[in-house]
């Protein structure tokens, strides 16, 4: 099991930056039964498809503290 913090892969969590690629990189580093961790911040992300992982947990520091919002692309 591993725990990967999305900020270690370049996510900013400032509510403005598109963090999609950093989140995808963190996911790619995970193995089965691992944790994808979002430290405090507001993360903007587009759609990411997760395949091939079992037992994945996504954790943050609580509602309103670790927030994931959809990136609007025009």
How are the SSEs ordered, and which strands pair?
Elements (H helix, E strand, L loop, with lengths): L2 E3 L8 E5 L1 H9 L6 E4 L2 E5 L11 E4 L5 E5 L4
Parallel strand pairs: 1-3, 2-4, 3-5, 4-6
Features:
74 residues, mainly beta, 3-stranded parallel β-sheet, 6 strands, 35% strand, globular
3D structure, described in words:
This protein is mainly β and 74 residues long. The chain has one domain (3-70). 12% of the residues lie in helices and 35% in strands.
In a few lines, what is going on in this structure?
Helices cover 12% and strands 35% of the residues.
What structural category do the secondary elements indicate? mainly beta
Helical amount: 10-25%
Q: Main sheet, how many strands, which sense, barrel?
A: 3 strands, parallel
Beta strand count: 6
